[in-house]
Amino acid sequence: MFGLIPKEEKFFAMFKDMAANIVTGGKLLKQMLDSYDDPQASQKKIKDVEHACDAITHDIIQKLNKSFVTPFDREDIYALAAALDDIVDLIDASAQRFIMYNVEKPTPEAKELAFLILQGCLAIEKAVSHLGEKFEHIAEHCVEVNALENEADRVCREAISRLFDEEKDPIQLIKWKEIYETLERATDKCEDAANILESVVVKNA
């Protein structure tokens, strides 16, 4: 019978793998905007990371469906897997916008948002690293994610405000507004994952 009970560590290991992939995606996006010498190649690498995260999400759900014992609530495992997958989806969507709209050069605000996305991904990775250990350490990293999301929201708001003040070409205005909002939504997804992690802490304290 004991052989039929799955090891809890498998879920934690998969979440840690996923968080590491998200950080890789965040780094690739930041590098893409910082250098911008071959954005198509950078976007392809990000797409590969997105596919890897999809595969891990699928594995988590498959394992969840076959498991009798889970390390924390099933709905939280599913929600966390989906939230982590959403982060890399938005990183990929952000990179795609630069290719789709033939952006010649990223703005300083876009670079700042990419930096904040990466910081959010790093904080999520730190929070996830404590799963299966002392859950109370997770909370401090979740607070950091919330602060980063607030900062990204401010940068996005100010960038769009400046866009409406200064951009005369309506097509460029529409393009950049969508780019800024897509970048900012990636930090929203980091906050969603942090909220689920905080919920896990409360339930398992």
UniProtKB/TrEMBL annotation:
<dbReference type="InterPro" id="IPR018445">
    <property type="entry name" value="Put_Phosphate_transp_reg"/>
</dbReference>
<comment type="similarity">
    <text>Belongs to the UPF0111 family.</text>
</comment>
<dbReference type="Pfam" id="PF01865">
    <property type="entry name" value="PhoU_div"/>
</dbReference>
<dbReference type="InterPro" id="IPR052912">
    <property type="entry name" value="UPF0111_domain"/>
</dbReference>
<protein>
    <recommendedName>
        <fullName>Phosphate transport regulator</fullName>
    </recommendedName>
</protein>
<dbReference type="InterPro" id="IPR038078">
    <property type="entry name" value="PhoU-like_sf"/>
</dbReference>
